[in-house]
Amino acid sequence: MATLQLKNITKQFGDTKVIKGIDLDVNDREFVVFVGPSGCGKSTLMRMIAGLESASDGDILINGQRMNEVGPADRGLAMVFQSYALYPHMTVEGNMGFSMRLAGVPKEERRAKVLEAAKILQLEPLLDRKPKALSGGQRQRVAIGRAIVRNPSIFLFDEPLSNLDAALRVQMRIELARLHEELDATMIYVTHDQIEAMTMADKIVVLHDGVVEQVGSPMALYHHPRNRFVAGFIGSPKMNFFSVEQHSISSDGVTVRLPGGRPCTIPVAGEQLARDEALELGIRPEHLQLDENGPLSGQIKVLERLGGQTSLYVQMGELLITIMADGDVAYRVNDTVQFGFAAERAHLFDAQGVALESLSQHPLASLTRQDNRAATEPAAPGGQV
Amino acid sequence: MTTHRNSAPAHTRSLPIRQLVLTLLGWSIALIIFFPILWMVLTGFKTETAAIADPSFIFSPTLESYQAVQARSGYARFALNSVAIAFGSTLLALLIAIPSAYAMAFLPTKRTKGTLLWMLSTKMLPPVGVLVPIYLIFRDVGLLDTRTGLIIIYTLMNLPIVVWMLYTFFKDMPKDILEAGRMDGASTLQEVFFLLLPLTLPGIASTGLLSVILSWNEAFWSLNLTSSKAAPLTAYIASFSSPEGLFWAKLSAASTMAIAPILILGWMTQKQMVRGLTFGAVK
Ligand SMILES: Nc1ncnc2c1ncn2[C@@H]1O[C@H](COP(=O)(O)OP(=O)(O)OP(=O)(O)O)[C@@H](O)[C@H]1O
Ligand SMILES: [Mg+2]
C-alpha cells in the first residue's frame, strides 16, 4: 500500500522558480509517467519526492504522512538514476547489498536478499563482477536490483533507459512492465520517450515550465488534450496546427472556415467563445487522409517511405503539414495533393491555446492499462488473421 | 601511450622524425632538470679536493664524505624528525582538508569560489612577513624547537594546496553516486568513508604525497623555528654549510642522504602520483 500526494509543491533555485505549484495524486500500484520538454523540471520534481532536494513550499505526503523533513532513506522510496550511479568499487553483490550493509543486516541474510533480487533480474552469474565489466543493460539491471532489495513502496525512475540502444530499450521496457506486475509497487517514471510513456503509464503527467499541463491516461491525453501544448507534445509525429476563422456556432459544434475557404463543423462546445476570437485547428498526421475531394490541398515537399507507412510533408501556404499515409501511395515530390479529415478527429483551440471540449468522448479515452489486458487475453488463443 | 599506439600506423611517414625530435626534447629537458641532482650525488662520492677541482665525471669514488658526515652527527635523529613532521603535518592537513573540500565540492554556496581563491592567496604572502609574530607566539607558548610546532606550521602552510587539490578531485566525483548512497541510507560520514574516500583515493594519495614532499623539503621555517631537538633534515644539511667554509663533498653527501628517502618514496608511488595529477584529464 503506497500512495503519494503532492500539494502545491514549489521549488526555487535562487531567484528562479523551477517548479511553480504542483498538485498530484499517485494511487497505490499506479505507474505514473512524467513527460515534458527538457528543463521543465521533471528531475527536480522527482528529486524532491526522493528527498534529495528540499521543497521550497508545499507538502509531500507518502501514505498520508507528511515527508518534507524526512531523509531520503527513510521515505520508503528507491530511485534508479539515469546514469545508473553504481558504486564502481563494489561488486554487483556489494552494490545491491549496500543499503543492507549500512543498516547492519547480517551477511547471510543480505546475501539471500540479493540473490532473490538477482534471480528476478537474471543477474545471478554477474554477482562477483564490478560495474566496469558490465554492459549498459546489465548495469541498468543492477541499478534496478539495488532498488528492489530495499523493498520500497514507491520506485522512482529518472530516464532509466535513455542511455541504452533502441533494441535494449524495448527489452528493458518490457522487463520493467513485468517488474511492475511482479512487485506490486507504485512506480514513478520520467521519460522523454513517447512510446515508453504511452505503453507503460497508467497515468501520464505532462509538465511544462514547472507546471502540470494535464494528467490523464495515455488514451485520454491522446484523444482529448486539454490544450495546445499537450496536443503538440503527445503523439508522434507532432499534431498539425492551422489558423482558422470562426464561421458560426451551433449545438452541433463550431463551424470554421478552413484554409482554402471551405467550411467545416467541428463537434466541440463553443458557447463560451467570443464572436471573432482567433481559433486554431489541430489534426494529427495520422488523421489526415489523402482524398481527391478533400477540402485542403498542398504541394509535397518531402516524402519519406517507411514501408508500412509514408510520411508526406506538404507545403500549404506558409505551413508545412505532415500527413501519415499508406505505405504504397503513388505520389512523388512536387505533386499536388488534396486531403481531408474526419471532423470528430479534429481539435479546436481558442486564442489562449485551451482546447474546446468535445461534444462526445472518444470510446477509448477512459481505457486503462488493465482494461487493455482484459480485452486482449481472451482473444489470444485464436489470434488475429 | 594509447594515443601513440593509435596514431602510429596512420602517419607512418612523418611521425618518426617528429617523434625523434620530441623524444630528444623530452630527454634534454629531463636531463637539465635532473642534472643538479645527479651532480650532487656524484659530488658526494668525491674527495673534498676533487669536489672543488675542475668539474669532471671521471674520478675515483670514495665513501669518505659519507663517513665524515656519519661521524659528525646523528643523521637518524634528523631523519626521524623529518618523517614525523612531514607525515604528521600531512595527516593533520588531510584531516582538516577532507571535510572542508567535501563541503565546498558538494554543498557549495555563493562564496565558495571566493573562499578557495582567498585560501590560495595566503600562499602569496612571503613567509618572512609573518616570521617575527609567529616566532614570538611560538616562544610564548613553548612551541619553539618542537615537532608539534613544525607540524602546525607545515599543516597551515600546505592546507590551501591540499584543500584546493582535494576540492578538484571531489568535484570530479559523480554526484549521483553519493546521492545513490544517501538513498541507500548512508549518513554523511558513511558516505565519505564508504564512497567518497575509496573512489578518490588516487587523488588523495597524490595530494598527501605532495604535502609530504613540500614539508620534507621546507627549510625556511625549520631553520628559524628549530635548533636541535626537533630539527629535520633540511636543518641537518644547512649545518654543513657554515662555520669553517663550505665543504662541497660533505654537503652533497648530507643532501643526498636527506633527499634519498623522499626520492625513493616518490619513485615507488610514481604511478599513483601521475594518476592523481592527471585524474581529470585521462578519466
Ligand atoms: N541545482 C540547481 N540550481 C539551479 N537551477 C537548477 C538546479 N537544478 C536544476 N535547475 C534548473 O531547473 C530547471 C529544471 O531542471 P530539471 O533537471 O528538473 O529538468 P528536466 O525536466 O529533468 O530536464 P531534462 O529532461 O533535460 O532532464 C532547469 O532549467 C535547470 O536549469
Ligand atoms: Mg532530467
Automatic annotation (TrEMBL), chain A:
The organism's place on the tree of life at top rank: Bacteria
Keyword terms of this UniProt record: ATP-binding, Nucleotide-binding, Sugar transport, Transport
A matching Pfam family: ABC_tran
MF annotations from Gene Ontology: ATP binding
InterPro entries, per database record: AAA+_ATPase (IPR003593), ABC_transporter-like_ATP-bd (IPR003439), ABC_transporter-like_CS (IPR017871), ABC_transpr_MalK-like (IPR015855), ABC_transpr_MalK/UgpC-like (IPR047641), Mo/tungstate-bd_C_term_dom (IPR008995), NA-bd_OB-fold (IPR012340), P-loop_NTPase (IPR027417)
UniProt name for this protein: Sugar ABC transporter ATP-binding protein
Residue span, ABC transporter domain: 4-234
Region of interest (Disordered), ranges: 365-385
UniProt entry tagged with the keyword Nucleotide-binding: yes
CDD domains: ABC_MalK_N (cd03301)
TrEMBL record, chain B:
Keyword terms, alphabetized: Cell membrane, Membrane, Transmembrane, Transmembrane helix, Transport
CDD domains per record: TM_PBP2
InterPro entries: BP-dep_ABC_trans_perm (IPR050901), MetI-like (IPR000515), MetI-like_sf (IPR035906)
Membrane-related topology note: Multi-pass membrane protein
Keyword Metal-binding: no
Positions of the ABC transmembrane type-1 domain: 79-269
Subcellular location as annotated: Cell membrane
Transmembrane regions: 20-42, 83-104, 116-138, 150-170, 191-216, 247-268
Family of the protein in this entry: Belongs to the binding-protein-dependent transport system permease family. MalFG subfamily.
PANTHER family (UniProt xref): INNER MEMBRANE ABC TRANSPORTER PERMEASE PROTEIN YCJP, MALTOSE TRANSPORT SYSTEM PERMEASE-RELATED
Name of the protein in its database record: Mannitol ABC transporter permease
Lineage start: Bacteria, Pseudomonadati, Pseudomonadota, Gammaproteobacteria, Oceanospirillales
